[in-house]
Amino acid sequence: MNSFLITKSLISVLNDKDLIALKRNSPQDMVRMAEAGIEGEYVLANQINKTAFYHNAKSVSIIPILSTINSAAYVIMCSGKKIDQDNNGMYEAEGSIISKRNLLGLDFLSWVYDLYRPNEPYESRGAHPSGVGINRYIKRSQLTHSELSYLRQQGFLQLIDLANPMSFWFTSFTLKRNENGDDTRAHLYFIHRLFPFDFDISTTGLLHYNRRN
To answer: How many domains does the chain divide into?
Structure first.
């Protein structure tokens, strides 16, 4: 995954024994490992939104809306009909060399697979097509109809994060104008998150009142 000459030794992809142990001892962390990247993106986006509101910013970063679009598109893409071709391409590129292998392949195929199978041993995934090591990558064809529908649903539910006026450059709404210039302002937006246990939809409410955030 990192083939740059100088830094490639800095990133170590877990070996199969570590992945077997992780799934056996902490299946929830196995699931979280697949969604942690998007989780991190949304934490960043939410922090940017709160900072913009608290400081009454006159300009807004485009990072939150880009993160939402990118994250939703990735999850939706993982449920696409031709997505297994991507796994086939990785098999051909890495061959029997374990050090070249990705940790998960397409993250959200693994996410939903392990979410629904917390007690399935990792080695049940079978042998890698080369015959060397375990087949780490989950294919769309391995998911049941309900799992695939669930994955597709999560992709579209992430678009809930676009129901945020900050995505369209409204940093706050003034409820009351004060003579001293310290207006009372508020904001409300929705958040969809994937978790090791399922998913969550919540709201974030922000208020600036009497010089306090």
So the answer is: 1
